[in-house]
Amino acid sequence: MRQPTAYIAAPARSAALAAATAALIAAGFLVTSATAADTIDADDLVSVVADDLDAVAAADALVTVGDCSALFEPVIADLYGVPVVTLAAALAGAR
């Protein structure tokens, strides 16, 4: 049986994001998230964003934590047909 994959999106790296990641892992998900890219050059940023886009497209679900309406990840998930769900919905579906 394959572990479900979740790409987790949040408006900022925070304690809430860390707690949500831990909860998803405990529920049996393989979790990915945006790559922190604070100190890289423009060429590396293009590569990092491309990797993040691929991770969204490959996920079984994109899990939102907080208000993600201004983020690109939910839009990309929708384009690839990846369900966008709240943390509560993801955890409820895992049980």
Q: How is this structure best described in words?
A:
By secondary structure, the protein is of the alpha/beta class. It has one domain. 46% of the residues lie in helices and 17% in strands. The chain contains 4 helices and 4 strands, in the order E-H-E-H-E-H-E-H. It has helices spanning 15-26, 42-58, 73-79, 87-94; strands at residues 5-9, 30-33, 61-64, 84-86. The protein has a 4-stranded parallel β-sheet with strand order 2-1-3-4, sandwiched between helices. Helix 1 (15-26) links the parallel strand 1 and strand 2 (30-33). It is globular, with a radius of gyration of 13 Å. The mean pLDDT is 90.
N-to-C SSE string, H for helix and E for strand: EHEHEHEH
pLDDT below 50 for ≥5 consecutive residues: which ranges? none
Secondary-structure class: alpha/beta
Computed CA radius of gyration, to the nearest angstrom = 13 Å
Which band does the percent of strand residues land in? 15-25%
Mean pLDDT: 90
Number of spatially distinct domains: 1
Number of helices: 4
Signal peptide: 1-36
Keywords: Signal
